[in-house]
Each structure stands twice: as structure tokens, then as C-alpha cells.
Amino acid sequence: MNTSDNTWGLPRDLIPWGPTIDPARCRGSGECVRFCPNNVFEFDVPTGQARVARFHQCTVLCSNCVAVCPNGAISFPEQDSFLDRVQELWRQRTIPTNLQSNPPPVIP
């Protein structure tokens, strides 16, 4: 679940966190489809592989599905560069007048 705690007050659709499936490695086990509680994946019958169907439904910073893929086909953004990007997005957003004196959040 995405909350303001893990989206840093940004709209979820701006946050570039979600899985990528390498089609050369995916063998269509469907483990990711069954595993993900947010229904990020779906099985594509014509290709016989899983695909990312709902990227922005992925919980920010969750990558648990990587461990369930028997072929190592799922990857996520590198965490340090991802967090740098989130800080940049946070700085770029329009900040209401009453918040202008507060610095952007420090992301651990």
C-alpha cells in the first residue's frame, strides 16, 4: 500500500518505482502474478509470459517479487539513484506558502 509516508507527499504516478520484467529471462511461471498483493503483474497468454500491467500500483520500495521469480527476470531501479530522483521531484513541485520555510525531506 502506498501512503504519504512512502510517497513523500508526491502523487504516486510521479514516482518512478516499479518492476521491469526481462522477457529474455521470463519463462512464464506466473509466480509474480500469484504473489503480488497489488496486482501489479498479469499473465499475457499470447506471449506465455508475465507482464507489468499496473506499474504504479507497486508499493514504493517493495521488491519482494524479485525473490519469487525462479528465473531472475524481475528487476527494480537502483535504490540510491531512485531516492535521488524522488528528492529532485520533491524539490521541483510547487510548495505551498506555509511550507516554503521547511526543507525537503531527507530520504534514508
Structure description:
The chain is α+β, with helices and mostly antiparallel strands and 108 residues long. The chain has a domain of 73 residues: 2-Layer Sandwich (Alpha-Beta Plaits). 25% of the residues lie in helices and 11% in strands. The strands form two sheets. The chain has a two-stranded antiparallel sheet. The chain has a two-stranded antiparallel sheet with strand order 2-3. A hairpin with a 4-residue loop joins strand 2 and strand 3. The longest helix is centred in the last third of the chain and has 14 residues.
Name a few traits of the molecule.
108 residues, two-stranded antiparallel ribbon, elongated
Summarize the structure.
This protein has 108 residues and is of the alpha+beta class. Helices cover 25% and strands 11% of the residues.
What profile does the largest beta sheet have? 2 strands, antiparallel
Assembly category: single chain
End-to-end C-alpha gap: 19 Å
H-E string:
HEHEEHEH
Q: Give start-end ranges of low-pLDDT stretches.
A: none
Helix content: 25-40%
The CATH architecture of one domain: 2-Layer Sandwich
The amount of beta strand, in percent, is 5-15%
